[in-house]
Amino acid sequence: MRTLSVLLLLCGIAIASGCQQEKTSSNAVATFEAVPETIQEKNGISQTYTAQADIGARYDPSGISGAGPVFEVNKGDAFRILAAQDEYVQVESQDLKGWIPAFYFSKEAANIKTGTPYYMIVAKEVPVSSSPGEKAKEPHLDLWAGKVVRIEKSYEDWVAVRIVQYDAEYGADMWVPKSFLQAYDPANAKEGRLAQDSHIYDENGQIKEEEWINPVFIQEETQIDKIGPVYQIIGAGGQTGYIRVKEFIPNPFIDN
After folding, report:
1. I want to staple 66 with a disulfide (CB 3.0 to 4.6 A). Which of 106, 117, 168, 254 is the partner?
2. Measured in Å, how far apart are the chain's first and last C-alpha atoms?
3. Does pLDDT of 4 surpass 90?
4. Residues 155/34, Cβ–Cβ less than 8 Å
5. Cα-flanking dihedrals φ and ψ of residue 135, to 5°?
6. What span, in angstroms and rounded, lies between the C-alpha atoms of 173 and 48?
């Protein structure tokens, strides 16, 4: 599939070399099979392409951030490619510059489906990709088993997910194979929030006086004599501690 994509990309770049440099109609602007390194090799930068699906442009292609998008890219919008880095290309809208996965300019991206959001749980650890495909493009972000995700888009056997990290939602261009997920069941969710007025304890049952940030992640269930059944948890800031089982609220999403 990737070999075919590269061949199609080479053809797309050749066609795009004669395109106008400003926004034009989608009929006059090329799409390409998204392989940014080939864009660089074939002088695809400065050519104009049409987005084939909606996506939020991010500030930095090197890492996913909880900050909202710089601007929204809508299907049918045409952009001149300013730069390429890894799997991303830089585009500009009303004097704002942002990065989006190059895949969203490909003909394949037109097959992305958007539906009513729903929750699933990560069944086994999985690396995140910036677009559907076998190559993981976010090597520093793996989703742990038990993490709750919200599904918003799908493409063949892949789904785009949103997650909660440091009490903020983010996603937009985070793709994983659906085979790594399972149906949502609160009993299987290892990620959630602290109940209001809950306490964090150490292994001796003493209250820990430190600030905690949601979400929290269950490491194991155990017992503390002075307290009873507890979950050993890790917090978003890296802290560890214990909470009463009844004080864990599955699913970290604010609207749950």
Report:
1. 168
2. 39
3. no
4. no
5. -85, 120
6. 21
Please give the single-letter amino acid code of residue 146. Answer: G
**pLDDT tens, residue by residue, 172-186:** 678 999 999 999 999
In 3D space, the residue among 102, 43, 45 whose CA is nearest the CA of residue 73 turns out to be: 102
For residue 69, is the peptide bond before it cis, meaning its omega torsion is within 30 degrees of 0? Answer: no
Strand order of the β-sheet with 83-85 is 83-85, 88-93, 96-101
Q: Indicate the burial class of 87 (C-beta count within 10 angstroms; 0-12, 13-18, 19 or more).
A: buried
Here the tokens at position 188 are 């299987």
- Residue reference for tokens 């820990």: 208
Residues 6, 14: Cα–Cα separation, whole Å: 12
Phi, psi of 229 (to 5 degrees): -65, 130
Q: Rounded distance, CA 14 to CA 27, Å?
A: 16
Query: Which pLDDT tens digit goes with each residue over 142-177?
Result: 899 999 999 989 999 999 999 987 777 776 678 999
User: The tokens of 30 are what?
Assistant: 């090329």
At residue 237, the 3 state secondary structure works out as coil
